[in-house]
């Protein structure tokens, strides 16, 4: 891959500009709905780098976002390790079953090479998207370490293993962390300006467990990959994020993105004013299941509660589902403009 020097931008300055802006742009996790105007399936989108890049560019052309984001596909890395994936024409791919059932299988777990599975497709898509979208930052996407470990062991089982097989969990986490560092460093070579790291399974842990089984591994990743031209945005849509905010901040990520399971107004009271925080219009209730008017009302209500914080940027609570009506997506952006203008 070629590293595009011309696409470099000081992302620490960009973060400061977002906080200082009187009129702010939204940054929803918006990528998969591009299948609708493109007339393609999710399967087609995830299988071809050129198609992905065109989809990311289409979103950039249609929506006045603060940045462009690549696909939030949390099956991708688990597939590289050997997990079975369920594919669909209309839904984001999901992991089924588990490949680690005890210490022996954890010890045998091999770190896959970068480029295995569909990682090469997503890296090539990011490289192409950067060239096509010069007017704003472009972010890659990856899963977080505990969330990846949970997909390899089974999400419910991972909670139990934290208590009963902690040595095994730390072994798995060490391996997946090494993989994620290598993967994100390959993303850096494509010219993207940062990564959105999704760590939702950690949001199901108690604060003490998150401090032991997520925070140190996320911090190891952030310390290994970020610099002034490349930032890490940490996403967690779990319902315990308010209780574990100190641990989340301690990960060293540059910005934080929260889901609709929490009260964003309460979260903003806890986030340091120098750190950008994003959230949290419901992807399921509003973008997918709502109406243009309900989306407008939800957006304006959230902005009325959180817009007073300079370090708040409105977003979706998580990845917007592929078949979310475009009328709802447009209503969201219109409401943001209505509030700020």
Q: List the strand order in the largest sheet.
A: 1-4-5-6-7-8-9
User: How does the helix and strand content classify structurally?
Assistant: alpha/beta
Strand portion: 5-15%
Radius of gyration (CA) equals 19 Å
End-to-end separation: 42 Å
- Report the uncertain regions: 1-6
| Helical percentage | 40-55%
Helix count, DSSP H or I runs of 4 or more residues: 17
- Topology order in helix (H) and strand (E) letters: HHHHEHEEHHEHHHEHHEHEHEHHEH
Number of strands: 9
The shape, in one word, is: globular
Largest sheet: 7 strands, parallel
Indicate the multimeric state: single chain
Mean pLDDT: 96
Please give a structural write-up.
With 341 residues, the protein is of the alpha/beta class. It is 49% helix and 12% strand. It contains 17 helices and 9 strands. Strand 2 and strand 3 form a beta hairpin. Helix 7 (119-132) runs parallel beside helix 10 (166-190), helix 9 (155-164) crosses helix 10 and helix 16 (292-306) packs parallel to helix 17. It is globular and about 60 Å long. The relative contact order is 0.14. Residues 1-6 have low confidence and may be disordered.
């Amino acid at each position: 891959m070629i590293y595009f020097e011309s696409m470099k931008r000081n992302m620490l300055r960009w973060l400061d500009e977002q906080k200082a802006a009187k009129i702010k742009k939204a940054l929803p996790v918006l990528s998969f709905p591009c299948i609708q105007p493109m007339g393609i399936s999710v399967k087609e989108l995830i299988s071809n780098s050129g198609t992905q890049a065109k989809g990311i560019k289409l979103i950039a052309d249609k929506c006045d976002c603060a940045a462009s984001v690549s696909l939030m596909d949390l099956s991708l890395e688990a597939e590289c390790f050997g997990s079975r994936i369920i594919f669909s024409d209309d839904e984001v791919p999901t992991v089924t079953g588990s490949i680690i059932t005890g210490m022996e299988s954890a010890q045998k777990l091999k770190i896959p090479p970068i480029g295995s599975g569909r990682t090469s497709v997503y890296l090539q898509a990011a490289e192409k998207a950067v060239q096509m979208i010069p007017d704003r930052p472009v972010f890659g996407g990856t899963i977080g370490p505990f969330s990846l470990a949970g997909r390899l062991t089974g999400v419910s089982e991972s909670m139990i293993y934290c208590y009963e097989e902690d040595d095994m969990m730390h072994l798995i986490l060490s391996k997946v962390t090494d993989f994620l560092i290598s993967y994100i460093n390959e993303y850096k070579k494509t010219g993207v300006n940062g990564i959105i790291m999704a760590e939702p399974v950690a949001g199901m842990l108690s604060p003490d467990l998150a401090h032991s089984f997520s925070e140190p591994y996320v911090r190891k990743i952030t310390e290994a990959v970020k610099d002034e031209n490349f930032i890490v945005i940490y996403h967690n849509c779990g319902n315990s994020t308010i209780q574990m905010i100190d641990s989340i901040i301690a990960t060293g990520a540059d910005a934080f993105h929260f889901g609709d399971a929490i009260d964003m107004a309460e979260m903003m009271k806890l986030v340091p004013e120098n750190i950008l925080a994003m959230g949290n219009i419901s992807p399921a209730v509003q973008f997918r299941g709502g109406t243009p008017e309900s989306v407008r009302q939800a957006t304006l209500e959230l902005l009325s509660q959180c817009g007073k914080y300079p370090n708040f940027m409105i977003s979706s609570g998580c990845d917007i589902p592929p078949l979310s009506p475009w009328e709802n997506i447009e209503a969201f952006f219109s409401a943001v403009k209505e509030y700020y203008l």
